[in-house]
């Protein structure tokens, strides 16, 4: 007999690393980190259940988003660094980051937990709804890591479970 939980468990670092590493085709290291400070340049991905109930968030800073997008698209590191210096995320890097965040929904889909999918990605400069911003700042059921992609550098990633 199996018991269905009402929420997805916090994924393991191993699952996060393997998912991103498998997509970008480069070594990815995760180490202890801190939550990215709330900034308008952050990306916030909202994952929902099939009943459209918010289940989890991924919050990444501009550096992490640019490096993930660059690594997926094999965009030269110099172009990625230039976008970070300009505090701008070009459309190609944003779309590549979206693809990685979309596939990352798989880390929440485990046995006996609700099915979860990416519902929305708030790009830099987007207005994040107050309830989502409050959840992103929640202390507790979360993982804050420094993500380093070989050849591209590092950034901050947080996963928050509601």
TrEMBL record:
Protein name: Uncharacterized protein
């Amino acid at each position: 007999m199996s018991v269905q939980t009402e929420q997805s468990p916090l994924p393991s670092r191993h699952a996060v690393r393997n998912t991103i590493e498998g997509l970008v085709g480069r070594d990815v290291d995760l180490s202890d980190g801190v939550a990215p400070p709330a900034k308008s340049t952050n990306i916030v991905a909202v994952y929902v259940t099939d009943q459209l109930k918010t289940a989890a968030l991924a919050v990444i800073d501009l550096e992490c988003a640019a490096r993930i997008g660059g690594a997926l698209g094999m965009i030269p590191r110099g172009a990625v660094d230039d976008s970070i210096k300009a505090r701008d995320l070009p459309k190609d890097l944003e779309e590549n980051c979206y693809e990685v965040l979309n596939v990352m929904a798989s880390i929440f889909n485990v046995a006996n937990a609700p099915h979860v999918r990416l519902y929305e990605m708030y790009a830099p400069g987007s207005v994040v709804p107050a309830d989502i911003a409050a959840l992103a700042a929640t202390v507790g059921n979360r993982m804050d890591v420094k993500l380093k992609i070989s050849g591209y550098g590092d950034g901050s990633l947080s996963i928050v479970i509601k």
